[in-house]
Amino acid sequence: MLLAEVARVSAEVAGTSARSRKTALLAELFAAAPPDEAGLVIAYLAGRLPQGRPGIGWRALAREVPPAGEPTLAVGAVDAAVTELAAVAGPGAQAGRRRILDDLLGAATAPEQRFLRSLLSGEVRQGALDAVALEGVAAAAGVPATALRRAVMLDGSLPRVAAAVLAGGEEALRTVTLRVGRPVQPMLAGSAKSVAEALAALGPCVLEEKLDGIRVQVHREGDAVRVYTRSLDEITDRLPEVADLARALPGDAFILDGEVIGQGADGRPVPFQEIASRVGSRVDVAAARQTLPVAPYFFDVLAAGGEVLLDLPVHERFATLAALVPEASRVRRLVVADPAAQAAEAERFWADTLARGHEGVMAKGLDSAYAAGRRGKHWLKVKPVHTLDLVVLAAEWGHGRRTGLLSNLHLGARAADGTFAMLGKTFKGLTDEMLRWQTERLRELAVEDDGFTVRVRPELVVEIAYDGLQRSTRYPAGVALRFARVLRHRPDKPASEADTVATVLAAHPGLPQR
Ligand SMILES: Nc1ncnc2c1ncn2[C@@H]1O[C@H](COP(=O)(O)OP(=O)(O)OP(=O)(O)O)[C@@H](O)[C@H]1O
């Protein structure tokens, strides 16, 4: 398929707000694409490169290269060039990359060049696109979107399933199933303001402690154990404790869902930042295991004995979990079968969980299935402090002690049109270690630096605590955060899952009038 086709449809999709029109445009494109290229087309439309970012600075990208007159560049050729770009290493790498880049841009027409530049810089990331692309693929393949969505959730990869269904239709969907060893999108939670609100929304439910660590999905088949993060990256080697524990369990074909935390000598959980640095890629695992041992606490089981359990209700999945995992390695829970009669007991569980140093509680509908990859209304988190997940849009160079470090962060929430609306700035809450880390990360994401402010690709999510909202004429959403401070970086969370302007506003119905 020609890149020109993808670039044209991408522009048309971005230019229309009607979802049905977007779906129709994409369906037409996928129907015309060879099935084995569908994955690549989906990735490009969403602004993703399967190879990851090939380390080209914005200056190199901005250089003018005479465009081609006619569109002849195929998506396969772009993919090959990006693979080549990613492979360039060693002395002379920069010149090598420029040569490949110039050849690529030189083969592209002016509109294709624009598309390629935004793709390579990563500046345009349409997080919402995957959902529409899925509907487009379903329409092109003539299968129900719900069936396709389920297959994608089981398989974990839209590109892979799209290729299969476009080639083999509904028949191909039937062969897609959850496999031990292949990570599946984890179920996510909505939120409630209080335990009472959660009980009212869910009815009979179970309350679990919400541990503040790293989500892990643990797969075991025979003696082979693999550990994946929330974003499905494999981290088996970084958490040998988890693999050891999984290997010691009495079962040999299962998938568990849980959270890894560390505990001090007093049994209280250590701060999240320490756990996050424990799984960092440059950590000496053997040494870290001595200084900061961690342990998994499981709360769900997705498959056991080779059987898929996703559709079973929580209480049945939990019975399987309890047979597989000893109590000491499970999260604590309270079954609230009768919310009206157990309201006081539920409040005690909440108070006790907080007193033990945990982040909050999770309430889960007793009869609910495991909705992989979805932010369900059947799981509700309740935390004592209101926090937001916002995206860093830019950062200002620090002064004094912070000279040479990127400090003051410009924070944005997702707006309805797919862009980000800035809600405020903050340089508070950042430890020296966090400042160092974010400077390094934001430099990788930089698209422009005027000496004061570095504008970045909107990819880094940060969790923010704040005291409220105030009206503001300075910011595009008409509101600004009051006393925002950074709690943590969330490199594991994609910007497409950051909070939206609408949810931020909805959390503050009593916003002071001007
Ligand atoms: N008992 C539990 N059940 C489910 N998830 C739990 C539990 N304890 C801790 N967690 C963590 O809480 C997260 C669920 O919250 P959510 O789906 O909102 O994701 P999140 O945005 O990463 O959460 P948060 O921002 O609150 O850390 C899970 O991803 C998991 O890491």
Automatic annotation (TrEMBL):
Q: Which cofactor does it need?
A: Mg(2+)
The task this protein performs is described as: DNA ligase that seals nicks in double-stranded DNA during DNA replication, DNA recombination and DNA repair.
HAMAP family named among the record's database cross-references = DNA_ligase (MF_00407)
Which species is this UniProt entry from?
Streptomyces goshikiensis
Q: Which residues bind ATP?
A: E208, R215, R230, E259, F299, R375, K381
The record places the active site at K210 (n6-amp-lysine intermediate)
Q: What is its EC number?
A: 6.5.1.1
**SUPFAM superfamilies attached to this UniProt entry:** ATP-dependent DNA ligase DNA-binding domain (SSF117018), DNA ligase/mRNA capping enzyme, catalytic domain (SSF56091), Nucleic acid-binding proteins (SSF50249)
Q: Which UniProt keywords apply?
A: ATP-binding, Cell cycle, Cell division, DNA damage, DNA recombination, DNA repair, DNA replication, Ligase, Magnesium, Metal-binding, Nucleotide-binding
Q: What is this protein called?
A: Probable DNA ligase
Gene Ontology terms, MF aspect? DNA ligase (ATP) activity
